[in-house]
Every structure is written in C-alpha cells, then in structure tokens.
C-alpha cells in the first residue's frame, strides 16, 4: 500500500519556508537600520569635512558635497603659520564662508601628537604591567590569589567621575598637573584592571600543562610566558591593545581636569574647545573630527581580524 | 643518570589539602617505577614534585646526593610527557621536539641531528612540518615522547601518557615505552591508574591512596602478596572477592578460615604465619582467577552457590555467583557452560588465599614476616 504523507506535513513545510524567509528579511532589515544608525553621524562628519560652511548649513543638507573642498584641512595644517588668530584679525572675515577658524586651531596637530604619545604609552605600559600580572594570577597558586582578582574587579565598579577629585589631589601633590605623565598614570589606573581581567580569562583557558611543559623544557616562568603564552594569546592581546588605545584616545573627563595648555592637551579637549570659541566653524570642526577618527580607524583596520576572536576568547573560558 | 630519593616528603596545599603524606621512596638509577593509584591519590603530585612543578612542603627530595627541593624545573635534568601531550600548538612538530634543546642553547646542527634521529625512531619523520592540530592522537603522543627523549634527560617522567589513546594503540605504545626505557637506559617514573600498564611496564610499583604509599614492590609482589585490602582490590580484574569469617585452629598446627557452612584449610606456610591468631575476625580474599570448577566437597575447600550472571569476555568469562547472599565474581574458562540460577561448586586454590585483618585491612600473611 503506498504511503501518503499526511496533509499537515505539506503545510508545515511551507510554513517553515516562509518562516525562514521572514527571519532572513527581519535580520537584513535590522542590520541595515542598525548600520545606518551607526554610520549616519560618521558619514555626515566625513562628508561635511569636505564642504564649505555655506554648504554645511544649507537645507536640505548635502550628503554628497556639491563642491568638495580641501580648504578645511588646509586651514588645519596651515594654522599658526599666519598671524595669530584674534577677535580683531577675524572681524573682517565672512562667517558664512567659514573663514572663522578657532583661536586654538594651531594647537590641533600638537594635541594630536599628545593624544598619540599618551595612547601609545598607555598601551605599552598596560601590556608590560598587565601581561605578567594576569599570568601570575592565572597560572601561579599563591595566597590571596582570588582576593586580588576581586580587588582588581572592584576598581572597575567605581565610576570614573568619583575618582576625578582623588586623582586630581594626587596629581597636584606630585606636581604633575598639565603634563602628559598625569594622563598616562590615570589612564593606566583605569585600563590596567580591564587588561588584567581579560588576560586572566584567556590565560586560564590555556592548559596548565603547556606552562608545565615549557618549564620542564627549560623555560623560566618569564620565558614560558614570552615563548609559549604570548604567541597563543595574540587575539586577547590585540583586544587589549585596541581597548586601551581607544580608551586613551577618546578620554575626556580626566584630560579636562589635568590639562590646561597645549603642552598636554589631548585631542578631545581641543575639539571640545572649538565649540566654545567666539564663533563655531562647523567645516573646520568636522575636518578636525575626521582627523581625530583616522588613527583609531587605522588601528582597528590593522587588527580587525583579531578583534572578535580576541574578545570572545577572553570572555568565555575555553 | 639519576637516583631519586624521597625522605619524609609531604605536600600540603594552601587550602589545607594534604596531597602526599610522609613519602619515603628510593628510586634506583635506570629503574622503571610506576606510581599507581586512583584519582586524587597523590601520584601526579609526586611526579610534579620530581619535575619541580610542585614545591615540597616538608622533607627532602634528593637527586643523587643533591637536595633539589628548591631547584626550579628548568635547572633539573628531567623531561616529562603529559596526559594531554601539551604540545605547543603554534609550533611545528620539528620545533616542538627541538624546543627543549633550543632552550638549552644547543647548536642548530645538534638540534637538527637529534630531532631527525628521534623522529626516525618514532616513525614521525614525515610529520615534522605539521602542526599538532593536524595530527592524530597517536601521532601527538609520539611527538610528546620525541620532545622528551630528544633531550636525553636523567629522569624521564610520564603522567598517564596513554590514557587518551584507544585500547589497541595503548597496548602497542606500552611496548614502545618499555623499549624506549631499555634503549635510553635512564630512570623512568610513570604515573597511571591503569593496573595493566603498571604490571606490564614497571620494575617496581608504588601503590598510593589518599596521599599515602600503600605498598612498594615488584609487579609480582603487588599482585601476589598485597599488603592490604586496598592494594588487593586495586589490582585484578574482576576485583578480588572478600568475605568475612574467623580463623580456627585444627589438629597438627592446622589453621582454617571458617564461616557459616564453609571451611577453607589454609596451607601450612600460611598457618605458620597465622599461628596464635585463632578466633581472630578476618577478611578472606580470593582472586577471581583462583578457583576452578572441581569435584571438591561443597563447603570444604570449595564454594557453592548459584550462578547469577555469565559475562563472556572473549578469552574467558566472568561468572557471577550468589554465595549466601553475597555476590562473588570469578574468571573461569570459556568452556564452562552455566545458566542463570544453576548450582555450582568451585574449588578454591588454597595456596593463593589472602587473609586480612577485618578492622585494619592489613594482610596477616604477607605483613607477618
């Protein structure tokens, strides 16, 4: 007797197919909406950096510049070459044409250099301090080991704003106000716990036997760390590098407190100061914004392939 | 070459766990010692102390004449094979094997010569460019062995190196390890919970439980003359059968084990060792293979009961027997045909009986000498 499929089966099959199409549709639409939400401000920043002041404020806004110009960038790189920007020298300028450049414009490139120095130093010191600390906590049994992990975590529970005043008092006492050192020290205090925590998770996921094998094979603890653990920890190291670099690059609150002059001001502080000048030049500000985004984007592109696996590996004990 | 001595060695962890207690052990140069025991008995901790991976909490660990309690692993001339192989995943097989030599600043030529030599011996020359992830379990095991043997160490340590392999490969690797020991002429310390590995490989076996050495002896000593019920139970498949009774003296210095409806007359040398112990509550041990289906009179030097299971295992069969409410397991020839519920009488090999104190579990025969 031939077997006839129950009528219901056909219904279910169709429903399943439709369900799959709907599911894919929802995912694609959501992804597009999310991408647009995230990319729209960045796109506008980049687009407007190549527009004149007049075009920026035109309604409706031009997402693609009608008359692309590099003069905003020229203004940045030539700032400081001419006579100093004062209220008087700019009184004849035409605001609509974007001739107003901020009085602190000449500090833009030095502040970028400051940001770069601070970020790179924080990354290097983070690795120098965080890697051995995480290895010790993950692989060496010692009294107070668990307590030290909790202690490290607790430091991240305290909001940064609560730390500003104590940090300020310490930095002032050390005579380090308005120096890059003050930023490096305070950024380390914020980022090292994260670095140690993420690396502990990763190191704990690597078998103890690897450590033992390396030591029996002739490595000291430090050599085992450098020759065996670090090459295997590349993804989490990259995650740490990115996190610390971006945190230091973008940090605003502490930099605002501790820096006063171009000797130590970082990019976020300077960019913010442009908005509180006599007149705001959006074209100049946006061009500066684009420059501020470039280094983190380069870092992200270089290390992009490691980012996801690094974070996952650190988050889940494998 | 190294002689290893443990003198009253203890290992206590920070959490208070006492992993090894009062260990006294003398491992001769070129000896193959197997540390045998269940999980958590302290055998791997002992091995790790030899490697320098665990500190000695108390007592002395001596290599030849030097106390090495505080000598770090990289300063001891030991090599180790781990249960999980612990190959470096980012290095090729060649670099894995040569890593120990590189760390000891051997020249490139020497590293190459030794790695090629070890690879040839282990038949893995064709795998030298691969990474561990591209190897099978057996191949990884060989690489791990190669990494250890290439250094020509004074002490060769192995921590359950075969437990991740399948049964057939395990047996062939056992033979290779035995051959390796013969060829390398160095001290081997091998940890396992597998009695068959211990019995086939060891010159001497150290049986451990709860951090305490239960018995040290040759495989024959350990199997034939177990010092206590733990050792007797740990070796043997199926495990040794126990039942409780008392000792009873008979005429002409005879000594017998007696319980309801059963009287087993102990051989003269056992009786001599048990002299004066009549009336003592004891636990009798009969190994699974120490019976034969015989014509013995039920209740006298023979066990009678009913068959409650028959488990063929190829070469022979395991016979489950209900003996006065207790279940006993014996290994009998596969020619015997018995059905469930059938009555059976098995003659006991009296010369191979084991008598233990019921309270302490210590052997009254082998510890009496």
UniProtKB/TrEMBL annotation, chain B:
<dbReference type="InterPro" id="IPR012340">
    <property type="entry name" value="NA-bd_OB-fold"/>
</dbReference>
<dbReference type="GO" id="GO:0005524">
    <property type="term" value="F:ATP binding"/>
</dbReference>
<comment type="similarity">
    <text>Belongs to the ABC transporter superfamily.</text>
</comment>
<dbReference type="InterPro" id="IPR003593">
    <property type="entry name" value="AAA+_ATPase"/>
</dbReference>
<dbReference type="InterPro" id="IPR047641">
    <property type="entry name" value="ABC_transpr_MalK/UgpC-like"/>
</dbReference>
<keyword id="KW-1278">Translocase</keyword>
<dbReference type="InterPro" id="IPR008995">
    <property type="entry name" value="Mo/tungstate-bd_C_term_dom"/>
</dbReference>
<dbReference type="InterPro" id="IPR003439">
    <property type="entry name" value="ABC_transporter-like_ATP-bd"/>
</dbReference>
<keyword id="KW-0813">Transport</keyword>
<keyword id="KW-1003">Cell membrane</keyword>
<dbReference type="Pfam" id="PF17912">
    <property type="entry name" value="OB_MalK"/>
</dbReference>
<dbReference type="InterPro" id="IPR017871">
    <property type="entry name" value="ABC_transporter-like_CS"/>
</dbReference>
<feature type="domain" description="ABC transporter">
    <location>
        <begin position="4"/>
        <end position="235"/>
    </location>
</feature>
<keyword id="KW-0547">Nucleotide-binding</keyword>
<dbReference type="InterPro" id="IPR027417">
    <property type="entry name" value="P-loop_NTPase"/>
</dbReference>
<dbReference type="InterPro" id="IPR040582">
    <property type="entry name" value="OB_MalK-like"/>
</dbReference>
<dbReference type="Pfam" id="PF00005">
    <property type="entry name" value="ABC_tran"/>
</dbReference>
<dbReference type="InterPro" id="IPR015855">
    <property type="entry name" value="ABC_transpr_MalK-like"/>
</dbReference>
<protein>
    <submittedName>
        <fullName>Glycerol-3-phosphate ABC transporter ATP-binding protein</fullName>
    </submittedName>
</protein>
<keyword id="KW-0067">ATP-binding</keyword>
<keyword id="KW-0472">Membrane</keyword>
């Amino acid at each position: 007797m031939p077997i006839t499929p129950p009528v219901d089966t056909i219904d279910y099959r169709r429903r399943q197919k439709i369900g799959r199409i709907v599911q894919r549709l929802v995912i694609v639409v959501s992804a597009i909406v999310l991408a647009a939400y995230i990319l729209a401000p960045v796109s506008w920043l980049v687009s407007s950096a190549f527009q004149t002041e007049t075009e920026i404020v035109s309604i409706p806004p031009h997402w693609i510049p009608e008359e692309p110009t590099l003069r905003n960038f020229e203004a940045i790189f030539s700032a400081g070459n001419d006579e100093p920007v004062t209220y008087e020298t700019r009184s004849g300028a035409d605001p609509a044409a974007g001739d107003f450049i901020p009085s602190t414009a000449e500090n833009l490139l030095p502040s970028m250099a400051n940001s770069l120095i601070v970020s790179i130093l924080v990354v290097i010191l983070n690795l120098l301090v965080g890697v051995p600390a995480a290895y010790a906590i993950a692989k060496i049994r010692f009294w107070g080991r668990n307590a030290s992990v909790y202690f490290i975590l607790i430091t991240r529970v305290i909001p940064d704003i609560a730390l500003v005043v104590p940090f300020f008092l310490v930095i002032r006492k050390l005579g380090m106000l308005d120096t890059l050192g003050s930023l490096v020290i305070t950024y380390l205090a914020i980022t090292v716990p994260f670095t140690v925590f993420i690396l502990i998770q990763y190191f704990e996921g690597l078998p103890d036997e690897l450590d033992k094998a390396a030591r029996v094979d002739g490595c000291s603890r430090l050599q085992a760390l450098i020759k065996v653990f670090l090459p295997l920890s590349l993804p989490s190291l990259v995650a740490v590098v990115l996190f610390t670099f971006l945190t230091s690059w973008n940090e605003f609150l502490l930099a605002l407190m501790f820096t006063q002059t171009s000797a130590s001001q970082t990019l976020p502080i300077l960019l913010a100061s442009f908005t509180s000048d006599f007149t705001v030049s959006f074209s100049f500000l946006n061009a500066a914004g684009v420059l501020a985004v470039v280094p983190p984007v380069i870092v992200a592109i270089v290390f992009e392939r490691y980012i996801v696996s690094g974070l996952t590996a650190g988050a889940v004990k494998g | 070459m190294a002689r290893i001595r443990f003198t009253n060695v203890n290992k206590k962890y920070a959490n208070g766990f006492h992993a090894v207690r009062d260990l006294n052990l003398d491992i001769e140069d070129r000896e193959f010692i197997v540390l045998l025991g269940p999980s958590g008995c302290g055998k791997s901790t002992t091995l790790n102390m030899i490697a320098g991976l665990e500190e000695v909490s108390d007592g002395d660990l001596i290599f030849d004449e030097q106390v090495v309690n505080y000598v770090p692993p990289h300063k001891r001339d030991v090599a180790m094979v781990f249960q999980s192989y612990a190959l470096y995943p980012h290095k090729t097989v060649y670099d894995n094997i040569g890593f120990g030599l590189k760390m000891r600043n051997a020249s490139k030529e020497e590293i190459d010569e030794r790695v090629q030599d070890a690879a040839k011996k282990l038949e893995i020359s064709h795998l030298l460019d691969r990474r561990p992830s591209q190897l099978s379990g057996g191949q990884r095991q060989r690489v791990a062995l190669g990494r250890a043997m290439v250094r020509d160490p004074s002490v060769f340590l192995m921590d359950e190196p075969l437990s991740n392999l399948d049964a057939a490969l395990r047996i062939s690797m056992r033979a290779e390890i035995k051959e390796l020991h013969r060829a390398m002429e160095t001290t081997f310390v091998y940890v396992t919970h597998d009695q068959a590995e211990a019995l086939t490989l060891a010159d001497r076996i150290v049986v451990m439980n709860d951090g305490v050495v239960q018995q040290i002896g040759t495989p024959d000593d350990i199997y034939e003359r177990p010092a206590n019920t733990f050792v007797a139970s740990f070796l043997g498949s199926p495990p040794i059968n126990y039942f409780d009774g008392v000792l009873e003296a008979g005429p002409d210095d005879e000594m017998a084990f007696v319980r309801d409806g059963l009287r087993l007359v102990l051989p003269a040398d056992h009786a001599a060792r048990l002299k004066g112990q009549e009336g003592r509550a004891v636990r009798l041990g009969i190994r699974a293979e120490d019976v034969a289906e015989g014509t013995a009179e039920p209740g006298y030097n023979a066990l009678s009961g009913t068959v409650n299971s028959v488990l063929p295992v190829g070469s022979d069969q395991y016979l489950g027997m209900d003996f006065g409410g207790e279940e006993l397991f014996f290994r009998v020839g596969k020619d015997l045909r018995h059905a469930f519920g059938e009555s059976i009488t098995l003659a006991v090999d009296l010369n191979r009986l084991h008598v233990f104190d019921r309270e302490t579990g210590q052997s009254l025969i082998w510890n009496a000498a």
